[in-house]
Amino acid sequence: MLRLLVGDIIEGEVIDLGVTGEGVVKYDTLPIFVPFALPYEMVRVRINYVKKDYAFGDLIEVLKPSNERVKPRCCYFGKCGGCDLQHMSKAVQLEIKRTSVERSLRRNGGFDYDVPPVVSLNDWGYRNKLSLPFGINGLGDVVVGFYEKRTHKVVSMKHCALHGDWASELIEIVTKWANEHRLSVYNENTGKGALRHLVARKLDGLQVTLVVNDDSIDATTELGRALEEKFGDVTVFISSNKKNTNVILGDGARLVYGKESEQNLGMFKAVVSPMSFLQVNAKVRDAIYNAVADSLKGFEGDIVELYSGVGLLTAEIASRLPRAKITSVEIVKEAVKDAKQLMTKLGFNHRVTCIADDATKFMAKLNGKAQNSAIILDPPRKGCSPEVLEAILHGEFAKIIYISCNPATLGRDLKTLTQKYTIDSLQPYDMFPQTSHVESVVCLSRKENARLCARKN
């Protein structure tokens, strides 16, 4: 094999795409992964990382472009780490996501499955939440922006194509407020400075959370008034985070301006804490929850839901199955509080039990007592713990519905679950257009009852 070194510049044809959308160029037999390159393009690449079996490179120039290459909508594309697929057509984006699920099942799960086309409902302006770091520009002014790729340097931004105009207006107001009041910005090297992150969620109203390296911060009333003048219904929270960590929010959030009110969450309205997880793409969220509820149609056993968040899916199922008894489990106490309030408001509290607990610990307590039940899993990117998966196999659940945001851990977890369960359907969804991420809903049933789980068309 020819020797390749960091800093070398090569030319070659892109022969494939990696699971996160990078182009693949072969140097002799060594695959080189090149972000922003497309199949059949001739490209010039600078090598930035070399291992024994693969390498990475930066795209210097496209010598011969693909017909599937499109002009990115966002001027920050390529610098900001939020998007990685804006340079390719929608058809190619969706095929990458479908293929990433299929490949992961083969590589991590050890089996082949014919994954159907990805369901896609929107392309731009779909995000209802943002999380952006504060920084200082060359003039010493406070800015809000994004981390430049492979650095912790904050680059100022004024808009984001994945959010609506509300994000641009919010950034303008917050940066003006911070500079007028001469607020300091957190420095991760010294541990000093106040402002760390701006976190916001836009539903019916605007919920703003300032993550600060302190217990409080000055002039929040002035910020609240400025936001209220533009957005109307506004709440401002402070989340104290004094730890040297890449976790954005602190342990809680304290309301410092406005009054919390119910927000439109699809079929329901509810108060949502800043600490609670909520899907950022409402249209795709509703489609997924509708599919899950449909897959349980006619099921007459009890239902256990792990990683249940604020209870939106719980409420959807409870409304569709009026006799079902549901136990929802979520580790974030604020989310469980929101879920309990929602169940009480909707009149489901007599048959829905919301529990604040770790999924692994809860399943250990359940100890196999679920033979006629269904279980719904919606874990974070790391997937389910081995203990949760083993408890499911031991519990002899009749049905499993797995909502995944990571094909790699989905394939790994399905390898365990398919020891006793059959995959009846798998449907990927484009929850995050313009990025390589993909959401999937998998419906499984015990092998001796394989036909009980409804298949989605």
Defining traits:
alpha/beta, 457 residues, OB fold (Dihydrolipoamide Acetyltransferase, E2P), seven-stranded mixed β-sheet, globular
What's the SSE blueprint?
Blueprint: E1 9-17, E2 23-27, E3 30-34, E4 42-50, E5 55-64, H1 90-109, E6 129-136, E7 142-147, E8 154-156, H2 165-180, E9 195-202, E10 206-212, H3 220-231, E11 234-240, E12 254-257, E13 263-264, E14 269-270, H4 282-295, E15 303-306, H5 312-320, E16 326-330, H6 333-346, E17 352-356, H7 359-366, E18 374-377, H8 386-395, E19 399-404, H9 407-417, E20 421-429, E21 439-446
Parallel strand pairs: 3-5, 10-11, 15-16, 15-18, 16-17, 18-19
Antiparallel strand pairs: 1-2, 1-4, 2-3, 4-5, 6-7, 6-9, 7-8, 9-10, 11-12, 13-14, 19-21, 20-21
Helix pairs in contact: 1-9, 2-3, 4-5, 7-8
Compact overview of the structure:
By secondary structure, the chain is of the alpha/beta class. It is 25% helix and 28% strand.
CATH superfamily caption of the largest domain: Vaccinia Virus protein VP39
Please report the distance between the alpha carbons of the first and last residues: 48 Å
Q: How many E-type strands? A: 21
CATH structural class of the largest domain: Alpha Beta
Give the fraction of residues assigned to helices.
Answer: 10-25%
Number of helices: 9
Number of domains: 3
General form: globular
